[in-house]
Amino acid sequence: AKLGKSLYMDKSLSKDGKVSCNTCHRLDQHGVDGLEFSIGVDNQLDKPFNTPTTFNSVFNFVQFWNGRAKDLAEQATVPFFNPKEMGLSPELLLQKVNSNENYVKTFKKLYGEVTVENITLAIAEFEKTLITPNSPFDRYLSGDQNAISTQAKKGYEDFKANGCISCHQGQNIGGNMFQKIGIFEEYPNQEDLGRYEITKREADKMVFKVPSLRNIAKTAPYFHDGSIPTLDACVQFMAYYQLGKFLDQETVDNIVAFLESLTGEYHDK
Known about the structure:
Layout: H1 2-9, H2 21-24, H3 72-81, H4 90-98, H5 101-111, H6 116-127, H7 136-141, H8 150-161, E1 178-180, H9 196-199, E2 207-209, H10 231-243, H11 249-260
Antiparallel strand pairs: 1-2
Helix pairs in contact: 1-6, 3-6, 8-11, 10-11
């Protein structure tokens, strides 16, 4: 994991020497950069997707908004070779890693040799440590009645009563299924059609991975296209587009208080 962290933080592993994994997935910002779209090599905007957090991503059943990577190691290969992200070729990546004596020594010891696969395995090992347990809500579920506010408790009940929990559930409070966005109303931005871009199945149009809600209060802006700036707006949007209902402001405020109780603890090692 230590080797993986060094690779994750290393800006030299990009075409212009200015972009690392941490540029877009910042450890000091809950695994995101707070931008609608991240900025990759040569100041290119990485559209059409908002950067998902790397925190707790080990618990996701697939990686990326459209689920095109089956696990963290497969995910980690993509940014290196994406011309809008880090802009390398496999040859150039290996050349850069091999030019660092410490890397070569450590790879030899741990993996035998420097290969693209081993580089991504090392990064994946580090990303498995990016978990944020012990949120106020976790403590509440473990029996500490005072861990969250009365409003957040009401919000949890509202979250369940309004059906949010049918998609955002399990250990990661999401990240374990695909769902269509825009059920009662068509989603406004149709620039990317989600799973459909991979499967070409009509039924997969506007189908995306349901994101985890852990640390959600810290990872704005929201949705796959980074189009919604606040949690309040998210809750109202989801109620209208996914559930076909309008929620009163008190219910929205309660649910937001619940969502704010999902911020866990990260200890940078």
